Amino acid sequence: MRHPPRHLSLWACAALAAAALVPLTGSASAAAPACSVEYSVTSQWDSGFQGAVKVTNNGAAKDSWSLSFAFADGQKVTQGWSAKWSQSGTTVTAANESWNGALASGGSVSAGFIGSWSGANTVPKTFKLNGVTCNEDITDPTDPTDPTDPGDGTAPALKASGNKLVDATSGATHRILGVNRSGGEFMCVQGYGIFDGPVDDASVKAIADWKANAVRIPLNEECWLGLDNIKPEYGGANYQAAIKDLVTKVKAHGMTPILELHWSYGQYTGNSAGCSDIHATCQKPMPDAQYTPAFWSSVASAYKDDPAVAFDLFNEPYPDRATSTLDQAWACWKDGGTCPGIGYEVAGMQDLVDAVRTAGAGNLILIGGLAYSNDLRQWLAHKPTDPAGNLAAAYHVYNFNTCASESCWDEQLAPVAAQVPLVAGEIGENTCSHAFIDRVMKWFDDRELSYLGWTWNTWDCASGPSLISDYAGTPTAFGAGLRDHLQAVNG
Questions:
Q1: How many Å apart are CA 268 and CA 369, to the nearest integer?
Q2: Which residues 6+ apart lie within 8 Å of 423 measured at CB?
Q3: How many CB atoms lie within 10 A of CB 339?
Q4: What is the number of alpha carbons within 13 Å of residue 244 lying toward its C-beta?
Q5: Residue 244 and residue 215: Cα distance in Å, rounded?
Q6: Torsion sign across C-alpha atoms 461, 463, 465, 469
Q7: In Å, how far are 9, 192, 267 from 275, measured between CA atoms?
Q8: How far out from the chain centre does Cα 21 lie?
Q9: Which of 70-79, 157-166, 230-239, 343-352 is least confident?
Q10: How many alpha carbons lie under 13 Å from residue 34 in its C-beta half-sphere?
Q11: For 406-430, how does the pLDDT look when each residue is reduced to its tens digit (9 = 90+)?
């Protein structure tokens, strides 16, 4: 989806994927505690760490809230989000922002922070909400019976077999039916965090509860590689660790993680430019030769031993908007190099397939076509060579696209789907309804093809397709169409 590069959420990041989730539960008693707190160390490096808290109010509704706890080892909070963070000595306080002060009975709120540490980073033991002690006992995070461990589902290793996707172990045909989880492509480069909203186990379980079996995760190449323009806490090893944690949670709930390059380096100011910035702050017409092969080599190296993870090489190519002919655009798409109308050296899809395979990864690869992945007419003629024989065509369709009718799908998509697996990596509409995606899903269902809805984020559906109104999975009117359909198909 070509969402605005300047898109900002009210949340900088509520809670990143927990590398070490430490639940804090009340000791056994007849009465429930007045409040409960989950404290997470979501990532940690030599002198710093990232933490998150989730507070659940078990008492009367509150118009405002303030959480306090104490560090035992001299840790310091250096910045935070989704709360007003302060520290006096060892005592840390997180007070509500103006927009999240209301805390209903049974309701929860999450917030996160960056901190420093030295020597030890002991988990706080006592938490107070508005002065009332929440819970005092800590479950050992190394206990294998920890009840907050993610689900025990198994995500299949997928492989292209003819024009179908199959479970590489059983050989059974498998359709990818799920959602996109946006945020990892823009929050880090804008300096606000890594994800837009929570990606804890509860929020991932909410996706699985829709009977989704896949989650597409957009990435930013500058953040993954940790380039100098990215804040260190949101780039490089920290970014990669956060992505890995989310991938682990998605797989644990039996869903296929699809890692996709969404925003990339390279200055483009021509036709349909999304931004004039050289950095990875918007959708560019093609991947760049300077960083994208290195990005995919790194991603492939990280996941080459995990065939349950699929790769989507580049979100929405549009070299056709820069070049004067479709032949030039498709040549640029496949082979890259110096492409007419694009001012930076381009990495073609063959370059990226080569980068993945040279790294030793045989994972399933998805590749979108021209016109923001809406045009697949010459995809078969320009299909990259793949020694692993594990490629699928990726297609995006919204009600405002050129190819957005059954007649166009019959003409342009059916020939592709007859030869290779076809995955609609993004489907959506800008109507706050689902009449259009209902048609898309029917056409794809009739041919046993795959699709994923855009997007599992709490944005205003009037400004772009948004499936949910909260991260517990409450659907928008648009999202209800996808949810109900997934539950009917996969239920």
A1: 19
A2: 165, 176, 366, 392, 393, 394, 395, 449, 450, 451, 452
A3: 22
A4: 18
A5: 13
A6: negative
A7: 19, 19, 8
A8: 19
A9: 70-79
A10: 12
A11: 999 999 999 999 999 999 999 999 9
pLDDT in tens, 232-281: 999 999 999 999 999 999 999 999 999 999 999 999 999 999 999 999 99
Question: What pLDDT is recorded for position 153?
Answer: 65
Q: Which residues contact 4 (CB under 8 A, 6 or more apart)?
A: none
- CA dihedral 69→70→71→76, nearest 10 degrees, is 80
Residue 95 one-letter amino acid: A
Residue bearing tokens 């896949």? 214
Q: How far apart (Å, rounded) are the C-alpha atoms in residues 422 and 391? A: 10
Tell me which residue of 117, 128, 6 sits closest to 71, measured CA to CA: 117
Are residues 242 and 233 in contact, defined by beta-carbon separation less than 8 angstroms?
no
User: Hey, what's the torsion of the CAs at 286, 353, 256, 426, to 10 degrees?
Assistant: 30
Q: Which of 59-73, 372-386, 395-409, 469-483 has the lowest mean pLDDT?
A: 59-73
Task: Give the C-alpha separation, 204 to 468, whole Å.
Answer: 13
* pLDDT tens profile 200-209: 999 999 999 9
Burial 132-170 (b: 16+ CB within 10 A, else e): eebbeeebebeeeeeebebeeeebbbbbbbebbbbebee
CA nearest to 259, candidates 243, 276, 282 = 243
Answer whether residue 16 shows pLDDT above 50.
no
| Per-residue pLDDT at 156 | 95
pLDDT at 250 (0 to 100): 98
